[in-house]
Amino acid sequence: GETILLRIINAALNQQLFFSIANHKMTVVAADGFYDKPFSTNVVVIGPGQTTDVLVTADQPPARYYMAATAYNSARGAAFDNTTTTAILEYKNAPCKSKNGASLRPALPQLPAWNDTNTAAQYNSQFRALNNDKGSVPLNIDENLFFTISLGQINCSRPSIRCQGPNNTRFTASMNNISFVLPTRNSILQATYQNTPGVFTTDFPPVPPVQFDYTGNVPRGLWTPVRGTKVYKLKYGSSVQIVLQNTNITTIEDHPMHLHGYHFFVVGTGIGNFDPKRDPAKFNLVDPPVRNTIGTSPGGWVAIRFIADNPGVWLMHCHLDVHIGWGLAMAFLVENGVGELQSVEPPPLDLPQC
């Protein structure tokens, strides 16, 4: 009869996961540190870096029950580790053996298939914020951004272990056709503060440079992105909307997108290409969930909103570790405000030199 709180964290580098407990329902009450309206589920879907809080009531016959997690992999043809990790939920008065003396094996939960995108979509659709102060969701948008999330391929200048793509190519990734290059000689924040030239540029595009059928049959000429260290500037206090559009370049995939320095409202999601004329009418502006990491629907889109009230340089990237190395990232440069505590603190006098 005891009810316990489980705080679940996906600490995997490159794998989204399905999580379940044999014969037990879970009540989801929070995600990414924010309370949600409780809902019951048999399975939790969780991406790298995401957190989910669930309540579990011990309402089954005293025994041992497996808690198990297995891969959720939405990318067509991509290799992944299709193993299952387990732990045991044990009742204090659980018998060790059956009446005939045989050892009792814990029950295993029924987990979804590794490519069950419908279960993932249905699970994510149930999130609603428990409490949103009236007016906290931005309604008047200052920055309306549209970012494509794409995998791709670039030609290898010479064969190497990194050339794992077809026809002597290696895999790459991009946002709005820009494959992000991490700076090597100085950080973007330090270069901003010290006015150091040549570290980054501020011309990250607010929309894709070329419009196309994002989830359809994409021409091969659009598979190769441009490499660069580009940021997008935001004024302090501006209201920002970003539509993250999944694309069918190489393959569609559920990318867990994470924004440093902020939590954001998830106001909408859908399948196919985002329609700026019709889809905003379906946005949830009443009780949207608050997250810091959100998956892009495979072959679809997700819309988020936030207020740029934290000055500095903040990375937005895919939480699949291999993808950030491929360039699936960008950075926001949020300018200083004018009031107290609205500017980046100066570096300490004893800051070690590089």
Automatic annotation (TrEMBL):
Q: Which species?
A: Opuntia streptacantha
Keyword terms of this UniProt record? Apoplast, Copper, Glycoprotein, Lignin degradation, Metal-binding, Oxidoreductase, Repeat, Secreted
Q: Which SUPFAM superfamilies match?
A: Cupredoxins
EC assignment: the record states 1.10.3.2
**Subcellular locations according to the entry:** Secreted, Extracellular space, Apoplast
User: What does UniProt give as GO cellular component?
Assistant: apoplast
Identify this protein by name.
Answer: laccase
Q: Which GO terms describe its biological process?
A: lignin catabolic process
Q: Which cofactor does it need?
A: Cu cation
Which reactions are catalysed by this chain?
A: 4 hydroquinone + O2 = 4 benzosemiquinone + 2 H2O
Q: Which InterPro entries match?
A: Cu-oxidase_2nd (IPR001117), Cu-oxidase_C (IPR011706), Cu-oxidase_fam (IPR045087), Cu_oxidase_CS (IPR033138), Cu_oxidase_Cu_BS (IPR002355), Cupredoxin (IPR008972), CuRO_2_LCC (IPR034285), CuRO_3_LCC (IPR034289)
One matching Pfam family, short form? Cu-oxidase_2
The UniProt similarity line reads: Belongs to the multicopper oxidase family.
Q: Ribonucleoprotein: present as a keyword of the record?
A: no
Q: Which PROSITE patterns match?
A: MULTICOPPER_OXIDASE1, MULTICOPPER_OXIDASE2
Quote the PANTHER family the UniProt record gives. Answer: LACCASE-13 (PTHR11709:SF68), MULTI-COPPER OXIDASE (PTHR11709)
Gene Ontology molecular function: copper ion binding; hydroquinone:oxygen oxidoreductase activity
Q: Where is the Plastocyanin-like domain?
A: 1-94, 203-336
